[in-house]
Amino acid sequence: MTATPYEQLGGTEAVLALATRFYDIMSEREPALAKLHPCTPEGHVARGPRDRFAALFLVGWLGGPDDYVEQHGHPRLRMRHGRVRVNVDMRDAWLRCMQAAMDERKITGEVRTFLDARFSEVADFMRNVDG
What we know:
By secondary structure, the protein is mainly α. The protein has one domain: Globin-like (Orthogonal Bundle), CATH 1.10.490.10. Helices cover 66% and strands 0% of the residues.
């Protein structure tokens, strides 16, 4: 039996650490992207989006407990992000943040190859405007 990406990363604690670093990097390096989320007065993405993405969505999406679906239903990513104009620049900014977070968390090998491909696919799927 093949381990899920959730298991390969080390479970909930590791996924939460990845998501935390992702949002920290977003807040530090991609302020235009960070501002699409509720932020603290200092410009850091607030706890709500972090918790919803990390503790709920990302854990389940990677093969862990599916608390997000139990609490919020199907993710319907494009619908839930429909209010946000996602173009190539925003897609690329999101990917830069996630790639930097994975680099810092030293995610490598088979799971990194898988995550790079899946995150790229999902980020591109989220585009809803040209350019």
